Amino acid sequence: MSVRRPEFSDLDLANNAYGLQLNDDQIVEYQAMLEGVCLDYDIVDEMGAVEPEVRYPRTPGIHPDPDENPFNAWYVKSEIKGKPGGKLHGLTVALKDNICVAGMPMMNGSSTLEGYVPDIDATIVPRMLDEGATILGKAQCEYFCVSGSSHTSAQGPVRNPYNERHSAGGSSSGCSALVASGEVDLAVGTDQGGSVRIPAAYAGFCGMKATHGLVPYTGLIPIEMTLDHVGLMSGTVKNNALFLEVLAGYDGLDPRQVRLPDNFDYTSDLDKGCEGLKIAVITEGFGWKNSERDVDEAVKSAADLLRKLGAEVSEVSMPMHRHGHAIWSPVAVEGTVHQLEGLNHGSNWKGLYVTSLMRAQRDWKSKSSLFPPDLKSVLLAAHYFTNQYSGQYYAKAQNLVRKLKSAYERVLNEYDLLLMPTVPLQAPELPPHDTDATTFVTRALEMNANTAPFNVTGLPALSIPCAMRNDLPVGMMMIGKDFSEATLYRAAAAFEGEYNWKKT
Length: 504
Prior knowledge:
Layout: H1 8-18, H2 24-33, H3 35-46, E1 74-81, E2 92-96, H4 124-130, E3 134-139, E4 159-160, E5 163-167, H5 173-180, E6 186-190, H6 197-203, E7 206-209, E8 230-234, H7 237-247, E9 278-282, H8 293-308, E10 312-316, H9 324-341, H10 355-361, H11 373-389, H12 392-412, E11 417-421, H13 437-445, H14 453-456, E12 461-469, E13 472-479, H15 485-498
Parallel strand pairs: 2-3, 2-6, 9-10, 9-11
Antiparallel strand pairs: 1-3, 4-5, 6-8, 7-8, 7-12, 11-13, 12-13
Keywords: Hydrolase
InterPro entries: Amidase (IPR000120), Amidase_CS (IPR020556), Amidase_dom (IPR023631), AS_sf (IPR036928)
GO molecular function: amidase activity
């Protein structure tokens, strides 16, 4: 089989797109010259694909009926049993539906990808199965994973188990409802601006965004490579730490992974308590324009409890934190669309390219009218700023990330962890299906002022529930130096062991 040769019209289209000013005779001349390039493409086309081996039997699964899916959280249910024994033996897992599982449908929350079936497993899939986990299926996520709420999926809104009129958080929305309701023990989400920690705060469970690159992102749909994080979701701190022990480490296929530690022990210190830990409560993490008093007060009360448990707790001002979301914004806005324009994997990086996904997504522009308002707003903003300023603000923001990270690290040189509300507000009500675009977008993007800075800096951040107010959970977030996940788990386990947040 040979690749299709470019016709005159194909090259004329490129001529006009790049302003080459070739005349018809010159286009014909170049058409003949390109035969040599086409022959090289023929050779590549004939060679076999180089893809990871798929292990563990599975079926495509089923789309559950509403009575089996009370929070609209599942996309596909299909059981994959892991090896007997292992660290995760007996624990059940849901996977966000932007994670490749060979033979199982994946739509990334979007109508434009519906019908696609991956041909590979993401690296993390066999890792958890090798350690005895049982995967129960794929959980719904938000449309292209852009929203921090749970109302944008093409499959309809995901509902919060604590109050079904309210958001379960996003974009790992289905995982949120399944963990919060106890239907699964563990879930894997992704987090580019808070998409694991926001659900953890809205729905009351443990959500870890580990240091950038610690968990391989291979086989997951990216949004922006410098923001992409795998996130772990669980009902308990111990299970979360155990899960990270299994999933962390190099896979040789993800260029996000650099200078990883040698030790992936996150459970040995869980019983040490928090005595002697130094905690900085960041003043600027409170009192945002949309902050709710109940949230700020609950997190400050939680800090007081950590002090009573033996931690040294101080309030510290870090003004640069107030600019963290602004620095993240150009990276997220322009980077997300650059990634889309690059057919979901782009180029100029070494790693595993999921070519079947690239084929499935190649015509997304022809279906963009189907996109929800939040995604349309990102596309409009990215097109304007990229074309008006040639990517300069994306680049400047990336340069400013070093200054932002240094500001956090200066505090972390004196303290073991930072503490603040995960999100400024509790889970809001889901908007009606016919709401206006402004309300739709506001609900999708209103909550990540505290979470987003730690995506762009890559620092590890853990959200745990710290109170119940208005019959909804409140989340607090702990942040540490690169690869200090064990310290975050230690502090979180101490709090969890001494405090029943559901009764306060």
